[in-house]
């Protein structure tokens, strides 16, 4: 069966353009808390999942280990995250400090304003459809990755 629709343009370019615009939107809301959007996301994952091994955190966030290490450094330097020993002598653990939990709560309020503003601008129905489409695409691409191995 031949597809009746033929996509035009580069999907990667379109996704990157959308990502940059959406990131700027969230950064504008979250920046007054002293965090970048990516730092808020990382801190949120650590608060919700920690204490957690760096490798597991990277996998959960779909990041490679070097990106995670680089992104953790400012959070550790600010005192919002601590890295310590893990379950055994060979492992490490990442955990949010009390200051990190407070910073995450502050940033979460700013993030919520960003989300509501984006929903208002795009419309709740369009945002829900976008989320569903992105989830479907992620699942299909991840399924393809395991088939390729």
From TrEMBL:
Residues 11-139 form the HTH marR-type domain. Gene3D superfamilies: Winged helix-like DNA-binding domain superfamily/Winged helix DNA-binding domain (1.10.10.10). One of its GO terms (biological process) is response to stress. SMART domains: HTH_MARR. One of its GO terms (molecular function) is DNA-binding transcription factor activity. SUPFAM superfamilies: Winged helix' DNA-binding domain. This is Winged helix-turn-helix transcriptional regulator. It comes from Piscinibacter aquaticus.
């Amino acid at each position: 069966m031949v597809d009746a629709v033929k996509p035009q343009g580069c999907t990667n370019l379109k996704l990157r353009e959308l990502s940059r615009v959406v990131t700027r939107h969230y950064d504008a809301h979250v920046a007054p808390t002293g965090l970048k959007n990516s730092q808020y996301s990382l801190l949120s994952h650590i608060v919700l999942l920690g204490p957690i091994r760096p490798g597991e955190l990277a996998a959960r966030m779909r990041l490679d280990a070097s990106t995670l290490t680089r992104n953790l450094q400012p959070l550790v330097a600010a005192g919002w995250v601590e890295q310590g020993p893990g379950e055994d002598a060979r492992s490490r653990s990442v955990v949010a400090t009390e200051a990190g939990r407070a910073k995450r709560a502050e940033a979460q309020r700013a993030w919520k304003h960003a989300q509501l503003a984006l929903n208002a601008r795009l419309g709740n129905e369009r945002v829900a459809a976008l989320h569903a489409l992105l989830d479907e695409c992620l699942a299909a691409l991840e399924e393809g990755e395991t088939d390729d191995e």
